[in-house]
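Sanity check

After download, print the first record. It should look like this:
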Amino acid sequence: MSFIKSKGFKYFKNFIIGVGAAVVMVGALMKITSHPMGNTFITIGLLTEAFLFLMLGLLPPEKDYYWEKLYPGLEAYDSNISPLTAGEASRPLNAEAVENNLGGMLNELQSMSKSMGSLKALQEVDFAETSEQLKSMNNFYTRMTEAMSTLNETVEDTKLYKEQLASLNKNLGSLNGVYGNVLSAFNVNTGSK
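Expected structure tokens:
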């Protein structure tokens, strides 16, 4: 049986099937076109196909999957196969536990639904005017920066003006003292005559 499952035999079987089908088709074509070798070719092709059908009928069918390697004892009818994972899966179902799990899953699904609703609302927002709004905000910030710079210069000018006023006020005080002395001297000189 190991020879039948070998790659070489499978290749040979497919090769014979393909060649046999080709010979039948060529023989059918020759028969249809009334070629003198048509009878011979169609006879050889049909005998090859008959041999192939006999061979395929005698060989066991190929298995698609080898589940018995994963679950030993699977081929036996009355086998007691334990699950691959031990734990909760092997215990009988508890209705309350199932209900609690379903309740938690329902809450998660509702939360996901709300999140999806928020995403949909975000998707529907029109961002067409956003570029213009950003340009407008940039222009506003530029003007605000210029105004702050001008205000800063004005503060410096105001400090300088205040210092100059203080100096002028001091000078005026001195000048008033001098003027008072001049007036007193003038009154002394005019009053004595």
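If your output differs, re-run the checksum step. Summary of this record's structure: The mean pLDDT is 79.
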